[in-house]
Amino acid sequence: MNGRRILLSVLACALFAFQFVFVVDGFCTGINEVQTEKIAVDLVRDTQKAGYGIVRTDELKQWMDQKKNVLIVCASPKAGYDKGHFPGAVSFELPIPEMTEMSDAQKAAFIKTLGPDKDRVVVFYCGFTKCTRSHNGAMWAKTLGYKHAYRCPGGIKGWTEAGFPIEKTK
After folding, report:
1. Cβ(152)–Cβ(124) under 8 Å?
2. How many other C-beta atoms can be found within 10 angstroms of the C-beta atom of residue 151?
3. CB 120, CB 111: distance < 8 Å
4. pLDDT tens digits in sequence order for the chain, 170 residues long
5. 160, 84 Cβ separation under 8 angstroms
6. In angstroms, rounded to a whole number, what is the distance separating the alpha carbons of residues 128 and 134?
7. Is the pTM of this model over 0.85?
8. So what's the pLDDT on residue 19?
9. Residues 86, 72: Cα–Cα separation, whole Å
10. DSSP letters of the chain?
11. CB 70 within 8 A of CB 122
């Protein structure tokens, strides 16, 4: 009977140790590190290629709280914007994937949305990090001469996960 108790105690300790190592390893390395790395590297490459900046969700919230002169542009489809967007954001729907051309009419509408002040900070966001709509917005803003174009890669998903307020159009 004593041997059985010792064996059960050893097995219980081993099971606990295995679960502890598994859980800690999961937290330290991420759930899917290869996918996380791919997203991060793609984001850096897009940013470097297009020459725009990136801003974290919490940093953008600080800018807003500080009343920094920032134009925030939701690049998601209008239906997504209407459902919920960053406070004060304007809507300009952009496509997926990377937009290599823009017609004169699209450029005019884009410039009208961004305004004439090419020194103003302009931040684009869309749904989430893998979405390329915000990349298109920031890239085209830089192409058209806006000096301080940024992308907020976390998008509306990151914003709501951070617990920040949203506005709804409908």
Report:
1. yes
2. 30
3. no
4. 555 444 334 333 333 333 433 333 444 455 689 988 988 898 999 999 999 999 999 999 999 999 999 999 999 999 999 999 999 999 999 888 788 899 999 999 999 999 999 999 999 999 888 888 999 999 999 999 999 999 999 999 999 999 999 999 87
5. yes
6. 9
7. no
8. 40
9. 8
10. -HHHHHHHHHHHHHHHHHHHHHHHHHHHH-SSHHHHHHHHHHHHHHHHHHT-EE--HHHHHHHHHTT--EEEEE-S-HHHHHH-B-TT-EE----SS------HHHHHHHHHHH-S-TTSEEEEE-SSTT--HHHHHHHHHHHTT-SEEEE-TTHHHHHHHTT---B---
11. yes
Nearest to 114 by CA among 144, 135, 85, 88: 144
Q: Report yes or no: 62 and 148 within 8 Å, Cβ to Cβ.
A: no
Of 75, 54, 40, 57, the closest CA to residue 159 belongs to 57
